[in-house]
Structures are given as structure tokens and as C-alpha cells.
Specification:
The complex is a heterodimer of chains A (329) and B (398). Helix content of chain A is 77%, strand content 0%. Chain A has 14 helices and no strands. Chain A has helices spanning 2-8, 10-28, 34-59, 67-84, 88-113, 118-138, 157-176, 178-188, 190-195, 200-226, 236-249, 254-271, 278-292, 305-328. Classes of the chains: A mainly alpha (329), B alpha/beta (398).
């Protein structure tokens, strides 16, 4: 059965394996040094955050500004467990515990707030992320504003790859499942979905919790690579940064979030050396992309072999549509 | 529309090629070739040039630039010119980590200066240990920056490659408590602190314990969070209390507003603060008439009569057309301190430089003469500055 699945997704599987092997070889031979490694870490974390937020914002249509809050839950839980148990097992336990707790927080927050819509939901999620941040600021176990120092470093390329691939596969499969289609129907028209007998709150909370789960994983990876955590890192701007990935990539496109996550990580890392003009260039890049691609880099399309094939057929399908329109009229 | 697509595709492809080209070039040229080959010695500069604490970072870099310019004009160090490799860490710990990794592995620097703030500096220390390259901060004042502390605050393990040249927060808290008690004769104090900053919490803790051990009493303690703008609730509560001084650990952006609102409410007691007050913004926010009877501890005073300080102020004015603040002075000293160590090490080798830094004895900088102790902290004096009508009117060296 597994073979069957691999066969059906041959291109996807092949590209995953190829990515892993190529990067691993380049790290092994030293072509990619520590500096490039830190860029890769940023890329993977960006991708996980972008894809998981896209499930909430892009596919379910719930405008959330609180993703950094869930990320911080994962980061702190992973860091605290990992500092007690300084081993790979502790790291993995930390990541999973962080993700599960983040998902639970997602459910807790989602049940009351997801009854709100649009702007109201955005404000409510923003507020909850701030509550989480203030909580970490005042708890003893998180060391308050001083932050956690000396977190052991276990995040490396194989783990990054496994968690990133896991995120993409899980969310892709969720969206292609009947639950996923339900979520999309909520985005398209909530009232219509409700009248079809769909429990919209349930599915919204489900999407929210899954998004929070993977944000927690991203937080754990972050904590375990950058040695140091403090509540300021997960402020309002971090949530905006994640939202930028989703909007830039295209609402409702997983491949869009992946491309945008990679793109933004490379741009920020590359611009470090141009201190004076850094923020100007960064903003200009965003503005230009938004002017030429207001629907995001990928719109709501996915990057697949079909995508290439449809390029050639573009004109034909346009003709076909025109013909259809004629027939209808 | 099709043309736009083609152009966009071509542009992004060429951009990608350009990026990879540059990256590859950088890697193969100086990759792991190490430190000080050629005619220059490379020093990394990792500071907050954008983001929340950009004022501290850019002020420090101004001081560093001036120091290195003077050193290079005087013939450099060990007969070689110093080359600065500057980068911006956006005031974020993760960026500070990746930037210091870049400086150490890609650019082949022999030491890194900065970042200016404690959290960001701490985030670069593991990278320094891994690459065995020293990092020096001019203004990371937390007690546990260069040395691990146990639960009682006693030093346990020194961080081999981390150094700082500013005094610690505990020292500032203790100094201000002593100052309040002996110079101002205060016996009752109120603390208003920024609850979201490790810096303010550390200061408040040490002020409290020292002030109480000197026979004083803390009659009230209030907290706010960075970013607040209205403090009338806290201040009205305090107004009814009986106290001699207010201790206000925190940064200038809130301190300025608190002082103004306190004076408006008729609270005239002296206000004490720490080096977080040192910014022209304090005057802008509070207004000259509110800034009377305000005292704060600082690294450096422009009223200093020391010829080295007068010379520094003159040089700084000639270069930038303004008077230097404490971060300018600390940046200047950080760069001079490092170059002094490279000179004494006799070679631009990171390990030798680290040993020379650790054994610094009575280095004369513009922020005072100091030696480095076994915990990689400087032993130096502190200055208390008194503000009258918004201007520093008196400086007391303690």
C-alpha cells in the first residue's frame, strides 16, 4: 500500500528525496557552512509556519494574527524540557510536547474566538497572542524578561527536513481530505456551509488546532537552534512576518507558502550585510510582488506537473471557455 | 500580460543567479581560510542598526567607526589596517546568531564587536564558543552576560570567549542605592519599574536589597510595561505616599513620560535612574522644566575634565557634528580595547586575542580606566549625572 502511495506521488516523493540528499551532501562536503545552515534553518521554520498558517487563513478563511503565540508555546515547552533532558530523546519529546500543548492552547482559544468573523477574529487572535507573551513574561519557569539562556542545540538538517516534510505532507493530505474540503467550503461561504449541515465552529477549531500544532513544532526547532529565547521574539511583528509569507505566497496555496518562505528567508539573510538599506529593499520587494501579483506568487494554484502541463493548454482552455460562453448565451 | 510574465521570470532567474554567484564567490574566497592573511585585520561589527533598540546599536557603531578611523590613520595595528565588516541584526536574537555565524565562518573575522543589548549579545556567545572567536559588548549590562550565575547570583563558570567593558546592572543598582542614602539622605523610596525588561528587574532587585541594608525602607513598588504611555494610575497612587526619592529603572522612552506626568501631578521628589536614561529623547519627552532633581548613573559624562575625554568629544564633534552620548563613548572604547588587545597579543589570532583581552590591566578609555577581572567583567568607576532644567549640571564619580 505504501508503495502505491509513493507511486501516485512519485514526483513529490522524488523531489523530497532529492532535496534531502543534495543538501545533506553539500553540508557533508562543507560547501554549505554554518552560515548557510542558519539560512536553511530559517527557511525550514518559515516554511512550517507559512504552511500551517495558510491552513487557517488561506484554506479555512479565518484571519488569524496570533500564530507567533502558538510558536512561542512550542518554543518554550521544547526549551524547558530539553534543558532538563539534554539528549535527542529530550529534544524530540520537547518538540512533540510543545506541539501538543500549542494545539491544546489553540483549541482553548479557538472555541470562544472562532465564533467571531473577519476583523473581530483578527483582533481577538492578536489579543490572545499578546496574553501568551505577557504570561511568559511573568512566569518564573520561563525566566521572565531575562529569557532562557543556554538551550542545547539539537536542530540539524535531518530533523529540520523530517519536520518540514511532515508538516507539508500532513497539511496537504488534510486539505485533500473531506475535512479539508469542508474547511474550504467554510472559506467560500460560511452561511451556505452551515445550511449544508456542517458544524462550522468544529471545523474552524480543527484547522486552528492543526495550525497551532505545527506552529509549535516550528517553535521547538527555533528554540533548539538559536540557543536563546525571550518573550519579545514572539511579539506582534512575528505574527505579521508569518502572515506576510502566506499572503506573499498566495492564500490557499501550499506551494506558494513554501516558495515565499524560502524567498523571504534568503532575502533577509542576504540583506544583513546592507544594514542601511535593508528594510527599504525588503519593503520594496514586498510592494513590487504585491503590485504585479496581488493574489500572491502562486495565487491559489499548486506547483505540480499538472501546473506545467496547463501552461501549454492555457490558450486552448481559454478558447473552450469562450465557446462554452457562446453556447450558453 | 504574457510579456510581463516573461520579464518577471527573467528578472527572478538573473537575481537567483546573481545571489548564488555572490554566495559561492564569498565562500570560496575566504571561506575557512581563517583570520588575518593579507594586509588587513578583519573585525566583525554585529549591531542593532534597525528595529526596537536601533539607537543603541547605531550610536555604538558611530563610536567604533571613529576609533577605527583614528587607529588606521595612526598606522593600524601590528602594521596592518583594520577592516570592519558591518552587519545589522534587526534587534533580534536569532538574527544576531546568524549574523555572527556569517561573520565568523564566511568573512573570517578575528573578533566580533557587539551586539549592544544583553539578549542579543547572549545569543551570539554559543557561536563564539563554537568558532573560538572572541565577542565583546560595550553595553550588555546584565550580570550573567560573561559568566554563569547560580541561583544566589554567585559566579559559577566564566564564558571563555565573551567579554564586556561596561559595569553590571547589580553594580548600578547598588550605586544608586548608596547615592540615595548617603548623598541625598533618603530613607524612604518608591520603585517604579519596567516589568517587561530584564534590565529594569535586575536594577530594582539590587537597589531594594542595598537600600534596605542601609536602613532605608521601600514604601511602594509599582510596575509598568514597555510601550505604556499613560502612567497617571501609578502616579496618583504614589502621590499619597510618604517618600524621599523615586527609583525609576527603565528606558528613556517611558522614563521621560513618567517624569513629565509625575511633575505635572506635583510630585517633586528626586528621581533616580540608570544608564537607560541616557538619550536626547528623554529631554524631548519630559521637557526641560520637568527634568530637575533627576539623577542617573552612567558610563561616561561629557562634563569630565579628563584630557582624553575632552579630546574624544572634540574629535567626535569634528566627525559627526554633535556631542557624543554614552553609547558613542562605549563603542569607541570597545574598538580601542580590542585593538589594544590585538597589539598586545602580537598576532591577529583569535585565541591569542582572547587571552590578551582577559589579561587587560588598567586600560585607559574615555569611559574610565579599567582592568578585566576573572569573570571577564571590567572593574571600573561609575558616574552619577545630575540633570537641572534638562541639562547635565553636575557629575559625581563614585
Amino acid at each position: 500500500m505504501i508503495l502505491d502511495i509513493i507511486k501516485r506521488n512519485s514526483v513529490f516523493t522524488l523531489s523530497l528525496i532529492l532535496t534531502f540528499v543534495v543538501v545533506q551532501l553539500m553540508l557533508f562536503t562543507g560547501i554549505l557552512n554554518d552560515y548557510y545552515m542558519s539560512a536553511i534553518v530559517l527557511i525550514c521554520i518559515n516554511v512550517i509556519l507559512g504552511v500551517s498558517l495558510n491552513l487557517v487563513v488561506g484554506f479555512t478563511g479565518q484571519f488569524s494574527l496570533g500564530h507567533a503565540g502558538f510558536m512561542s508555546v512550542g518554543a518554550y515547552v521544547c526549551a524547558i524540557i530539553n534543558m532538563q533532558m539534554d539528549s535527542t530523546a529530550g529534544f524530540l519529546l520537547g518538540i512533540f510536547a510543545g506541539a501538543v500543548i500549542a494545539a491544546l492552547v489553540g483549541v482553548l482559544i479557538g472555541i470562544p474566538t472562532l465564533r467571531l468573523r473577519g476583523d473581530y477574529l483578527a483582533i481577538a487572535t492578536l489579543g490572545t497572542a499578546e496574553i501568551i507573551r505577557i504570561l511568559f513574561l511573568n512566569l518564573d519557569i520561563t525566566n521572565g524578561a531575562v529569557g532562557l539562556n543556554g538551550i542545547p542545540q539539537y536542530t540539524n538538517w535531518p530533523w529540520l527536513f523530517i519536520f518540514t516534510a511532515l508538516t507539508i505532507i500532513c497539511i496537504r493530505n488534510f486539505i485533500n481530505s473531506s475535512h479539508g474540503r469542508t474547511c474550504i467550503s467554510i472559506r467560500e461561504d460560511e452561511i451556505a456551509a452551515e445550511s449544508m449541515g456542517i458544524n462550522t465552529t468544529k471545523y474552524k477549531v480543527m484547522a486552528f488546532a492543526i495550525g497551532a500544532f505545527f506552529a509549535g513544532i516550528a517553535g521547538g526547532l527555533y528554540a533548539s537552534y538559536f540557543y536563546f529565547l525571550k518573550p519579545d521574539i514572539f511579539g506582534f511583528m512575528k505574527s505579521i512576518d508569518i502572515l506576510v509569507i502566506v499572503v506573499l505566497g498566495g492564500l490557499g496555496s501550499i506551494s506558494g507558502s513554501i516558495i515565499a518562505g524560502i524567498f523571504l528567508a534568503i532575502v533577509t539573510t542576504y540583506l544583513q550585510q546592507f544594514a542601511a538599506v535593508r528594510m527599504i529593499i525588503y519593503s520594496l520587494v514586498l510592494i513590487i510582488v504585491m503590485i504585479f501579483r496581488p493574489q500572491g506568487l502562486m495565487g491559489n494554484k499548486e506547483f505540480s506537473m499538472k501546473f506545467f502541463k496547463s501552461f501549454g493548454k492555457k490558450e486552448n482552455s481559454w478558447l473552450a471557455r469562450k465557446r462554452n460562453a457562446k453556447i450558453k448565451s | 500580460m504574457k510579456n510581463v510574465w516573461k520579464i518577471a521570470l527573467a528578472a527572478s532567474l538573473s537575481a537567483a543567479l546573481f545571489l548564488t554567484g555572490c554566495g559561492g564567490g564569498g565562500g570560496s574566497d575566504e571561506g575557512s581560510s581563517g583570520s588575518a592573511d593579507g594586509d588587513t585585520i578583519k573585525i566583525g561589527v554585529n549591531y542593532e542598526l534597525s528595529g526596537a533598540t536601533a539607537t543603541y546599536g547605531s550610536s555604538s557603531v558611530e563610536g567604533i567607526d571613529l576609533a577605527i578611523k583614528q587607529i588606521n590613520e595612526a598606522g593600524g595595528v601590528l602594521g596592518k589596517q583594520i577592516e570592519l565588516v558591518e552587519g545589522d541584526n534587526k534587534s533580534e536574537p536569532a538574527e544576531a546568531t546568524s549574523l555572527s555565524t556569517k561573520l565568523m565562518t564566511n568573512d573570517g573575522v578575528v573578533a566580533v564587536l557587539g551586539p549592544a543589548t544583553t539578549g542579543n549579545f547572549k545569543a551570539t556567545i554559543p557561536v563564539a564558543d563554537k568558532n573560538q572567536i572572541p565577542v565583546i559588548s560595550g553595553s550588555a549590562t546584565a550580570d550573567d552576560v560573561t559568566v554563569d550565575l547560580d541561583d544566589d547570583g554567585n559566579p559559577t563558570e566564566v564564558k571563555e570567549f565573551a567579554f564586556k567593558i561596561c559595569f553590571s546592572d547589580s553594580f548600578q543598582g547598588i550605586t544608586m542605592a548608596n547615592f540615595a542614602s548617603s548623598n541625598l539622605g533618603a530613607t524612604k523610596a518608591v520603585i517604579i519599574m519596567d516589568n517587561s525588561s530584564d534590565y529594569a528587574i535586575g536594577l530594582a532587585k539590587n537597589f531594594r536589597s542595598t537600600f534596605e541594608s542601609l536602613g532605608g525602607e521601600i514604601v511602594g513598588e509599582e510596575a509598568y510595561i514597555a510601550g505604556n504611555t499613560d502612567f497617571s494610575g501609578i502616579l496618583t497612587k504614589i502621590r499619597s505616599m510618604d517618600f524621599d526619592v523615586i527609583f525609576l529603572p527603565g528606558y528613556y522612552s517611558e522614563a521621560g513620560l513618567i517624569i513629565k506626568q509625575a511633575r505635572d501631578l506635583g510630585i517633586t521628589a528626586p528621581v533616580l535612574g540608570a544608564d537607560g536614561f541616557d538619550s536626547p529623547t528623554l529631554l524631548e519627552l519630559a521637557g526641560a522644566s520637568a527634568l530637575n532633581d533627576v539623577y542617573y548613573s552612567n558610563h561616561y559624562s561629557s562634563l569630565d575634565e579628563d584630557p582624553a575625554v575632552i579630546q574624544f568629544i572634540e574629535d567626535f564633534n569634528a566627525e559627526y557634528g554633535k556631542d557624543p552620548d554614552a553609547f558613542n563613548a562605549l563603542g569607541y572604547d570597545t574598538a580601542k580595547f580590542l585593538c589594544d588587545a590585538i597589539e598586545r597579543a602580537g598576532e591577529a589570532d583569535p585565541i591569542a586575542i582572547k587571552d590578551a583581552l582577559a589579561s587587560t590591566e588598567s586600560f585607559a578609555g574615555v569611559t574610565g580606566t579599567f582592568s578585566i577581572d576573572e569573570n571577564h567583567n571590567p572593574v571600573k568607576s561609575v558616574v552619577v549625572i545630575k540633570l537641572t532644567d534638562g541639562e547635565p549640571s553636575e557629575s559625581i564619580k563614585i
